[in-house]
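User: Second chain of the day. Same drill as before.
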Amino acid sequence: MFLDGLDETDQKILRLLIQNARMSYSEIGQQIGISRVAVKMRVQTLEKKGIIEEYTTVINPQKISGAISCYFEIETTPDTLIQVAELLKKNDTVTQIYRVTGKSRLHVHAVASSNEEMEKLIYETMDRLPGVEECSCNMIFSRIKDIKGLRL
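Assistant: Same format as last time:
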């Protein structure tokens, strides 16, 4: 499966951290039968190897009054794809950019504080991107399932 190459102890640590990334080394150690220091060393090794990338707080924008969340599918000419991605990376309203299969396609997620801010993103940024052949926008009404990262 996904964890091939990791020993059983590291797999147990990762499963516990996925359930609760704020779990203390002591708690993890008690649950899997090793010392707090051993857990800390293993977690640090997993971080250094890039297996654990970050610990973060995920905020649901739909729970904030007025927040608007949209996905854009953008098709560009092949020679402008990188330039478009770089321009979008600089915009604070844009939260995620993915290169996806298809003809020079980008999948872009944006979260705005209001309809006006989303409209500004569309008119002042999206509509002015170079080499865009097609751009579609889908507003998110509700979150049904949203998994971050790898789930074991």
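The first helix runs from residue 8 to 19.

User: Great, on to the next one.
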